[in-house]
Amino acid sequence: MTRLYVRRYKPAVRTRSRYTLLCLLLGVIFGWLPRLVHGPIPEKFNVLYINGAVAVWAYYTARMLIGFVVGITVWPQRWYVRGPMCGFMMLFPLTLISLATPTCGAPCMCWNLTTASIVGTLVAGVAYVVTGQHHL
Question: How far apart are CA 42 and CA 80, in angstroms?
């Protein structure tokens, strides 16, 4: 009589939590990089009689959360698709506010979406290089 050996799947909780934590930390680090190149300026929002500093913090909070979203998302499977997509999705609602701002408009929207996609690509790419995993 032959025995069937069933391979039991044990979820690697430590590996999964490390991947998510790494993506979160990378998102916090890379989320500040656009400030060196281009970032929302509070004065553009102050003209509209809103607190520009709070509006700018909304952009940086969304950028820093890109890493978390990349870390917990499993679709699409490949990191080079998921990273830019998560970055784009996280900042798209805020860039509509940029589009509505008279002193900013479409150029600001494009720059913010581009840098968000780059941040997502960097987070997913570095996490793949470090862990060898495409996703969680």
Answer: 32
